[in-house]
Amino acid sequence: MFLYLMKILFSKTYYLHHIYFNLN
């Protein structure tokens, strides 16, 4: 359960970083 939540959190931050770098 915990690893699953960590996986979701990591994927979300990774996705947001991709959007952020693509905009710049």
Describe the structure.
The chain starts with a helix and ends with a helix. With about 25 residues, it is mostly helical. The model has no long low-confidence stretch (mean pLDDT about 90). The relative contact order is 0.15. It has one helix and no strands.
How would you sum up this structure in a few lines?
This protein is mainly α and 24 residues long.
Give the helix/strand layout.
Blueprint: H1 2-23
Question: Helix-strand pattern, N to C?
Answer: H
Largest sheet: none
Beta-strand portion reads under 5%
Please compute the radius of gyration using only Cα atoms: 11 Å
Q: Given the helix and strand composition, which structural class is it?
A: mainly alpha
Helix content: over 70%
Poorly predicted runs are: none
Tags for this model:
24 residues; mainly alpha; 92% helix; rod-shaped
